[in-house]
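Before going further, learn to read the protein records used in this course. A complete example follows; check for yourself that the lines match position by position.
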Amino acid sequence: MSIASVAEDNEVPFISLAGAIEIIQPVRPFTFKTPHTDRMACEKIFEDMKAQGITKIGLISGTDGFGASMQAQCKDVIGNYGIEIVADETYGPQDADMTPQLTNIKGKEGIQAVLNPGFGQGPAIVTRNYKQLAVGLPLYQSHGVASDGFIELAGADAAEGVRIPGTALLVADLLPDTDPQKPVVEAYKTAFEARTKTPVGTFGGYAHDAFNILSDSITRAGDTDPVAIRDAIEATSGLVGTTGIVTMTPKTTSVSI
């Protein structure tokens, strides 16, 4: 958010790799982003919960920028899915144990699942404590944990069964051949893992897509003038990336998930 204001003041295109919807809402002329918004993630999570017959949940959110933003967005849309929050807890970025908050959630009657909007090490600690307390209910995390790093921090045993919204990049081998993203995600996955000898992750995919948006825009603009690049980014249409298929307008950014 701090960078966005500097970019806007200097009229330099800025493509953010962060998830909070506040980055692009309200619309800023020179600011764009590649990740799905936290609001989109909330909606996908609640769609899945509704399909599972879940109507009452516990919420445990980080108070960091991403966690607070996603918490607010989830609260704003949850009513559209017939789901009720019956326990609402938070934790700070430096907290090393979320057992008290999770114990409070576990003690609430009627809870059918727990959602953790958060980023960084917090969700991994929540996941470990969740397993230790044997809460025994479905645990949903955000797209902010969509990497092997989260599994390593939380522990594979604790992370097993956690549900998250994520990009096609994480399930490249499961995509049908007819999926337009399949060639793109497979090419990036192959190149990244051959070069780094580490598993591919969502976050590198965000940067990959941002670079492609930029290079595609410079090519279409035929110019490296910042305003010309900005205009071309804003006119991006149907650009297939690892995150989704990107189409932008002066008022909105649409990324399929």
In short: The radius of gyration is 19 Å. DSSP finds ten helices and nine strands in the chain. The chain has two domains: 39-165, 184-255. The CA atoms of residues 177 and 183 lie 8 Å apart.
